[in-house]
Amino acid sequence: MRFNGLVTSPRAYASAGVDTGRSGQAVAGLVSVLSRIKTGRASRSVLASGHYASVLALDQSTGLALATDGVGTKIIVAEALERYDTVGIDCIAMNVNDLICVGAEPIALLDYIAVEEAEPEMLTAIAEGLRAGAEAAGIEIPGGELAQLPELVRGHPSPRGFDLVGTCAGIVALDRIVTGASIEPGDAVIGLPASGIHSNGLTLARRALPDLAETPPELDGRTSGEELLVPTAIYVRAVLALLAEPAIEVRGLAHITGDGLLNLLRLQAEVGYRIDSPLPVPPIFGLIGERSGAEPAELYEVFNMGCGFCCVVPADAAESAVGLLAGFHPGAAAIGSVVEEPGVVELPGAGLIGGRERGFAPT
Question: Which of 33, 59, 92, 117 lies at a C-alpha separation of 20 to 30 Å from 45?
């Protein structure tokens, strides 16, 4: 993928309306207040805030894992194209892919759908996507909530507006929680291919590709809208199989969403990561960069850039792990290794180095 000739701009994502730096400060404020909740009993929380999912101790041996997420402005693409049968898959994926990062087995999800107008055909199509995603992840959807909020929700176009959010629950043995704390320098990082843009960075993508009916040559005959609606990959079955393999110690699991490969730094280890053999970058990301003027550093912060999930295993288990994971997600490969310098992610092929607070910058 080439970035030659890019017209640079000051933080294209912020110009499109999403200031990730400011949102980080807002989240810190929320966490600061909510962490001071007093219930009158000892906390059941096992993990500190900031991991991919929360875990509450149910008893001495079993943990309840919880995660919640939505689909974001990918919904605007669905509204514009009047195609609603895939965003349910994204809703499932964004939740279960986070939940498995702590080693939990997802078991159920509750959905929340807010609509401008309760249109039966649209809701049936959304439900079809939820069903497909649930079956791919092996979970149930035992209930949910439908809210009609015409004063709050406005479609693109109206009256087809909706929002879709899920809360997922899973079970994990307390002595089998995966936090990343056991990661060591020299461990291997395995990357699983993304199916496309997934469900992050759609505000910037839509700004770069406003004509959803356009068929850019880079997309091999697909329209921009079709490409942006490709559902998020679900990694549950692959990761559960890896966790069940007794010969492979799984030391870290990372869902690559907003912040890109910097998400590796959410794992609880004082280490860094050198990604020197990244997975191929799909053409959609080069197209977004060209059209938006976003520099490579920002693209690697906003998007998955072709890698949707990472597993960290000992170096001597890398080949076995790749073989197992590729059976579920062809193209899985060892993409790099753990390094001693803490808090950094190096992308030597792209000439970038980054950290959670400062993002990526040229080396």
Answer: 92
